[in-house]
## 1
Amino acid sequence: MEEEIDLRQYWEILRKRWLIVVAIPLIAALTSGIISFFIIKPSYQASTTLIVGKKASEEGQAAAQMLDNNVLLANQQLAKTYATIAQSRTVEENVIKDLNLPLTADELDKLISIDQVKTTEILEIQVSNTDPELAASIANTMAQEFSKAVIEIKKVDSVSIVDKAVTPDIPVKPNKKLNVLIAFVVGLMASVGLVFLLEYLDNTVKTSNDVETLLGIPVLGVIPNYDIGKQG
């Protein structure tokens, strides 16, 4: 019963300041929507995948080499080394030169991420940029320059591109709907917290229930709001 009374009190507190509870989440969601849709530039991501390996000396050895666990394990370990080479300053500077980019190697490095695809020997080069065509061009040029560098440095026989980067149509960020939803939820939580804080700081007595709660004694009578000037 006490829990039910407490819930009613909480509901009354929220109902009394319902405007705050409604206004703050709506303002937060609207602000987030404006920023996400009109201010933040969309970022696109293009990716290319490639594989580095040695050619089998004979055609009949190709299948056996692919099934050799030791070869696969070695190639997986080497993939980490290849990722470092791909994102080296030398490769990045060559990409900048090839595409005539107005960027430094450090600035280009921030746009690129190179990861090993799960536990395979395949590398994935991802490039993020506000220009989708430029993102694809950088990714493909990175693959080409990496191929030259790794063949020269590691003396491998081949670098095969599994998938070339294509111009992305849909931006990866910002996630506009998610941003608006998060802003609304955070605004709702903030508004509820603010309402209870204001109620806690408000020590004025407004109703007979407040008197009973404050003094711990029952109220015997209530004087009505009587306007003398309106008497006939």
## 2
Amino acid sequence: MATINDEGNVTVCCPDCDGALSTYEWRSSQGQLGVITSSHDHSHWGSVRLDFRLFRCAGCGRGGLGVIAYAGQYPGSYRELYSFYPEARDRLPLPKSVPPGIATEFREGEKCLEAGCIRAAAGMFRSVLDKTLRANGYKEKKGTTLEQQIDLAAGDGAITQARKRRAHDEIRVLGNDVLHDEWQEIPVEDVEASRHYCQRILEDFYDDRASVLGLLRSSGRTADEDKQPAESSEI
């Protein structure tokens, strides 16, 4: 969660620094970066200033916007940060051998979650699961459902029975609710669980890729690495 210090700078996880904790500064050697100030009635302090203030990441240079109540001249003797944009959540580590398209889609799901687009994030993580299973040869024919693909992967031992249950309950069913059912609010905790188990499944398939490829070949599966270029389904 973003915090503001006595110097008026904001400490927050920066999206362009791969989610690392960074300091966003409100001024440079040329002066402050920009601000719109109005008056504001604070619940405890009475009449104070309210800034819509520009910041810049000290690491990558990305811009940010903070909404801050304070008294006196900025940063003031006391201050409250109402909101800050952008703010990244922690980024879950992925194995290096995850196909670039699948990794990018997983990160897009994380960005949806950061932006508060909860239903969109659930759909993205379901899509990551679907593309992962297809990339590993579990889309046997056109009509093979995601439910069947999960069961086949568990039957081969590519994922555990425990992971199979999580893939169904935390990722597939939640994503299906978004794609096929009437609109309803989804708890962010449910999508956090979907993200967590989606990452675990990517680790199952790609952390020790050579061993997994051996298992897939012995089970008669054709992963993208074993297909002719024209046949590859990697995104």
## 3
Amino acid sequence: MTVLSHSDCQSLLEDIPDFLGAATPQAWIDHALTQLPLLLIDHAQCEKKAASTAISMMYKYVDRRDLLAKMSKLAREELVHFDQVLKLMDKRGLEYRHLTAGRYAGALHELIRKAEPEQLIDRLIVGAFVEARSCERFAALVPYLDDELGRFYASLLKSEARHYRHYLGLARQYSLDDIQPRVVAFREREAELISTPDDVFRFHSGIPA
């Protein structure tokens, strides 16, 4: 299997570049290529966290039938991805370990409203941005990676894009109002986090300081 070209990867993103407020800076890509062991460890951590987030939403919103179905499937897929990353790390002699969190997720969660159903809507929108950014970063990295890692990251594009659409679709379904103002608010903050200097390198970090 040939690793996808940059144009092929971009075509798989469909509407994601428009949804996101900024593309991954080349400086982040260049730095990531020198930090692949750390990138893989944090990638594994992100997959585990994504599964945990989906499960926590299933516990909190037990009356949302569509949410339960989509989050259940999402959690299973993310755990499969977690296992796949671990196996890839084993082949490369890399040991999985805990990493402290970067600023990305915490900064987005600061914007989440406290009252319901607004909190649910905001959590779903945050989920959409996290999944969309993951998909965009996989696509940005693929052309520069070795064949094995490039094929693996290319294989994740469709599932990550689907997760993004599930989160955004549920936000629209459950909101009593137009979600676009909230999307814009999170987009502005997310773009700032991606485009500004960041002291900690992680899968979702900003420009390496």
## 4
Amino acid sequence: MNPIPLLLAAALALTPFAAGALEPVPAVPSKIASEATMLAATRAGERIVAVGDHGVVLLSDDNGAGFRQAGAVPLSSPLTAVSFINAQTGWAVGHWGSILLSEDGGENWRIQRLTPHDDRPLFAVHFFDQRDGVAVGLWSQVLITRDGGRSWQEQSLPPPPGARRADLNLMSLFTDAQGRLYAAAESGKVLRSADRGLTWRYLDTGYSGSFWTGAVLADGRLLVGGQRGTLMRGSADGQAWQTVELGSKSSITGIAVRGNRVDVIGLDGLLARSLDGGRSFQLDTRADGIGLTALQADGAGLLLFSRRGVLPRSEISTAASVP
């Protein structure tokens, strides 16, 4: 799902290259890999693939009951987002402008892009199909590919209305049923592209803080969340934004939509759920206050990822499971 700046701050000092050289250092196999900070998760067919700190990639083939570390990841820097188009082919992005490709369901990865002289992290990635993909990140960076990631082109964004330059951090990507792509960003902005990342339009929500995540609701409306528990709902054309009260000031890091069921997670153990399509939410904050960073929602309920890694389903409160 999405990268969280607060969780990545400490990782910025890490250099995933060999001393005296600019050769990447592979992720280290670890018996406690499932306890690493995980920043995003997705489905690759029936498999769950999660990525996070130190280049850790975790795989589960039993719907999250157990995880194992991927076999070969060529970087030990934070991976912030992951996107699979089928059970085999997927991409992960992260620090040092890294883009990795897997063609075996996340078991093994290889570098498609790396900028060792310039650490402009990528925070989100989305592939529409085998060829067309978009990655976004620091300072309005937008990269697109039309050849499955063999080459990437940077797209220049116009400045937001009233600004002199485009320098917003673009934090997450999500799509609607029409294939339009949205980016949640700083300064209360949501960006929309109808041409798979070539051009973008700013949607002004009226909020001035940062959005970290977003999703499209069952009725086609947009739902975006971010700093200090801010959750806003807007029309499909990016208008008529309204604040949705959560009753929490904890920052929002992830949103999952299943029909009229909407789950929201965040820092400080934030858990909230809606059964009316995102119009209202019931708060169910975890007692341990652990920072939640990513989620996968399915018929068994929620699978949560956090600062301390994967949270077993047995740790998820019954209030957060599917009714």
